[in-house]
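Course assignment 3, question 2. Fill in each field.
Student: A.L.
Task: Predict the tertiary structure for the chain below.
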Amino acid sequence: NNKVGSYDGKQYDDQLWRLVPRFQADIYTDDIFHFDNRQGSTPISRTISVTTGIVTKESSTVKSTTTYKASMTASIGGSKASSEFTQQLETSLSSSTTSSWSKTEKIVFTIPAGKNFKVMQHKVDFEGVIPSDSCTMMTSIKIFESDTA
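Answer field:
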């Protein structure tokens, strides 16, 4: 008995399509290096590794970088710093392979005597509805020197 019919009763929320954001974004500033040389009388050099770009949580392929980028941009849209993040997304996702979305480099910093030195970086953790979509984006570093804590 294959009859086609229609429902003409009340509509409930669980009967309707709803859009679910692809990512939940957590934006924060990471203190990636800190050295207090305020008591020192000579400059000190330190080498640290800095990663910029997008690092995926799992080595998977993203079928469409266009929709991936649009979903990431939408999840950070309300942020004041979104132009910084949008620019980083643009740069990172210009390559078609996920392994090229980030770069790590060693940088030598010289901390002057009498200075408190910090290297900071904005980061965004994108938690995906689909776990293999999850990733972290790291922007360029910012350096702060001060005479105080």
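Instructor remarks: The beta strands are 23-36, 44-56, 102-111, 116-128, 135-146. The chain has two helices and five strands.
Grade: pending
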